[in-house]
Amino acid sequence: MGSTPHTRRSDTRERIQRTALDLFVTRGYEKTSLREIAEQLGVTKAALYYHFKTKEDILRAISDHVGGPVDELIDWGEAQPPTPEVKRELLCRYSEKLRGAVPVFRILQENQASLRTLDIGGRLRERVTRLSRLMRAGDEALDAQVRFSSALFTVHFGALVLDDVVGDPEEKRLATLDVALEVLGTAVAGR
Amino acid sequence: MGSTPHTRRSDTRERIQRTALDLFVTRGYEKTSLREIAEQLGVTKAALYYHFKTKEDILRAISDHVGGPVDELIDWGEAQPPTPEVKRELLCRYSEKLRGAVPVFRILQENQASLRTLDIGGRLRERVTRLSRLMRAGDEALDAQVRFSSALFTVHFGALVLDDVVGDPEEKRLATLDVALEVLGTAVAGR
Amino acid sequence: MGSTPHTRRSDTRERIQRTALDLFVTRGYEKTSLREIAEQLGVTKAALYYHFKTKEDILRAISDHVGGPVDELIDWGEAQPPTPEVKRELLCRYSEKLRGAVPVFRILQENQASLRTLDIGGRLRERVTRLSRLMRAGDEALDAQVRFSSALFTVHFGALVLDDVVGDPEEKRLATLDVALEVLGTAVAGR
Amino acid sequence: MGSTPHTRRSDTRERIQRTALDLFVTRGYEKTSLREIAEQLGVTKAALYYHFKTKEDILRAISDHVGGPVDELIDWGEAQPPTPEVKRELLCRYSEKLRGAVPVFRILQENQASLRTLDIGGRLRERVTRLSRLMRAGDEALDAQVRFSSALFTVHFGALVLDDVVGDPEEKRLATLDVALEVLGTAVAGR
DNA sequence: CATGAATGAGAGTTCATTCAT
DNA sequence: CATGAATGAACTCTCATTCAT
Questions:
Q1: Looking only at Cα atoms, what is the longest distance across chain A?
Q2: What chain C residue is nearest to D176 in terms of C-alpha separation?
Q3: Pick from C117, C4, C138, C139: which is nearest to C59 by CA?
Q4: Cβ of A113 under 8 Å from any chain B Cβ?
Q5: Helical residues (DSSP H) of chain C, grouped into ranges
Q6: Residue range A182-191, pLDDT digits in tens
Q7: Is D179 part of the contact surface with chain C (CB cutoff 8 Å)?
Q8: What is the mean pLDDT of residues A85-110?
Q9: Is it the case that residue C2 has pLDDT exceeding 70?
Q10: Which residue, A75, B73, B162, B166, has fewest beta-carbon neighbours within 10 Å?
C-alpha cells in the first residue's frame, strides 16, 4: 500500500531545484553557494553534482521551466504577421506564462549581470531581443516604438512588482494586461 | 601659478570610479574583482584601498552620483500633496535624473541580487519603495495602482532599454516621457 | 553444444582491463578516473567495483600480466651464478618479455611517481632493484657497473622508444638486443 | 651592515621552488598538493598564488632551470652538421647539463604521464623529440639508430640511476659518458 | 601615495568508494 | 551482475582585505 513511498527513485533532483530556487531568489545566484543549498537540503555538495553537472546547470534546469514555453510563444509570434492583433495576443500569452513562474523570472531579472558570462545569459538575452523585436515590428515611428516597449514592460515588470502587493493575483494580472493593451492600443489602433 | 586650477589632489579617486563603473557595467559587480580594476588602471590593489575602504565603497561612491539627486527629488515629492500634477512633475524630474546617468542605473538594476546583502542595496530598496509609494499614493483602485507603476516603469526602463537604440537621446527621452504621462494621465485625469 | 566454447562467465573483467590499459596509456593513471573508464565502457562505476576492489586493483591486474613472468625470470636469474652467459640470457629473456607488453611497461614507466604510494609501486621497485642487482653482480668496477646498467637501459627503453618507429618489430628488437649484448660483452668478455 | 637581512624582498619565491622540488621528487607532482607545499613552508596556499599563477607554473619555474640550457644545447646542435664529432659533443654537453640538476630531470622523467596534459609536457616532448632526431640524424640504418638511442639512454638514465649509487659523482659521470661514447663510436667510426 | 607580500575564508568541482536494491 | 544514489575528503584556485614599508 504505502501511498507515500519514501523517496522512491529520487525526487532529489526536484528538491534540489526547489531549494536552489528559494535561495537564488532570496540571496541571489552568485551569493548562494552550493554548500548552502546542500546544507539546507540535508545532503552533501557531492550529491548535487550527482544530479547536476555544474551550478549553472541547476539554474538552467530552473529557468528552463520558463524558457521552453516562452520560446514556443516567440516561435509562434515570429510565424505571424506583425499585426496589432498578434501583438495583443503576444502580450496576453506572455502574461499567462509569467503567472506562477514569477520567482523564476525574478531570478533572471535580478541576476542579469551574473548571468552575462553564463551561456544561460546568452539564451536569455536572445529571448529578450527576439521578443522585443517582435513587439516593435511593423511601425518604426519613435512614438510607436516606445509604446510597444512600454506595453511589454508593463506586463513583465508589473507581474514582478505587483507580486508583493495584496489582492487577488488573477485580478491584478488582468488589470495589468488591460493597461498594457491600452498603451499598445493607442499605438496600433489610433484609438 | 598653476595652470591646472585646483585639480591638484589625486584624480586617482575619480579614475578608480570610472574604471570600476566600466567594469561593473560590462562584467557585473560580483564578477568584477579588485584585481581587475587595479590592473586595468595600472595600479595595485592596495592602492584602491588607499582611496576606498572596501569594494562596496567604490560602488557606493558611484551610485551616490545618482542617489543624492534622486533622494532630493523624493524628499521634495514627499513634501507635496499626492496630486496628479505632482506625479507628472515627479516623472519629468526622474526622467531628467536618468539622463546621463544611465550606466549607473543599469548597474543598480542588473545587480540587484548582489546588492541585497550590501547596505547600499538597502538604500536602493528604500528609494524604490519611497518612489513607488509616492507615485501610487492618492488612488488605491487597482487600475490606478497599475497605471502609476506602469508609468514609472516606462520612464525607468525606457531609459535603460532605449539607450542602445539609434536616435537622438533627448528626443527618445521626451517620447518616453510622453507615453508615461499618457498612461498616468488617463488615471489621474479621467481624460 | 555451445558454439561459444566456455567463454561464458563475464568477459567484462577483461574488457575493463583493456579499456583501463588504453586510458592509462593515453591519459596517465592518476588522470584517468573511474568515471572515464566506466563511461568509455558503457557501464557504471559501481560495475567496476563488482569486478575490482579498487582502482589500484585494476592496475595491478594489468601489470600482473607482465609482473609474473618477469618475477619468474628474476627468480631464475637469482638461482644462477653471476656469469656473463647468465647476464646475456637475462637480457635476451627480458627482451622477450617486453615484446607485446610494451603498453604495460610504458604505463609503469611513465607513472612511476604516482605508483610510489601504491603497493604496486613497491613491487615494481623491488623488481627493478633485483634485476639491477642481478645484472650488476660479479664485477664491482665502475666501468662494468655502468655497462651493466647501460645494457639494461638499452633493452628496456629501446623497446619503449622504438615502438613508435617504423620497421618490423622483431627486427628492431633483435637489433636492440645486439647492441645491448655488445655493451655488456666488452665488459664481461673483454673482447 | 646586516649580512643576513631577514627575508628582505622575498626570497619566498625561491623557497617555494625548493620545497616544491623536494616534494615533487619524493611524492610526485600529482600527489603533492599545494596545501602540503604551503604547510611545509609555513605559509598559506594563497601565498603560493601570489608568487605563481598555477601549480603547473611552479613546476614550470623548476623545470626551466634545466629547460633553457638544454634548449640552447639543442639549438646549437641543430646548427651543426650531423657528424660523429657533433654527436659526441652533444652527449658530453648533455651530460654536463644533467650534472647537478638530477632531481629536476627525475621529476620530469617520473611524472611524464601527469605532464602530458600540461603544456610543460608538450615542451618536454618537443625537447626529447628534437634531441633524439639530432642524435639519430645522418645514418638511417637500424643498427645505427639503435646505437644513437642507446648512447642517449646511457647518459640520461645513467645520471638518474647512478645518483643513488656510492662513488664520486664526477667519476661516475665520466665513466657513464665513456660507455655512451663507445656505443656511439662503433656506429659512427666503424671502429 | 602607493606597493609587495601575505592571509583566511571560501568557492566550485572531482574523486574513489560504498551500499541498498 | 549491475545500477542509482550518495558521501567524505580532498583538490586547485580566487577573493576581499590588511599592513609594514
A1: 66
A2: C146
A3: C117
A4: yes
A5: 12-27, 34-41, 45-51, 55-78, 84-98, 102-110, 112-115, 119-136, 142-161, 169-188
A6: 998 765 543 3
A7: yes
A8: 94
A9: no
A10: B166
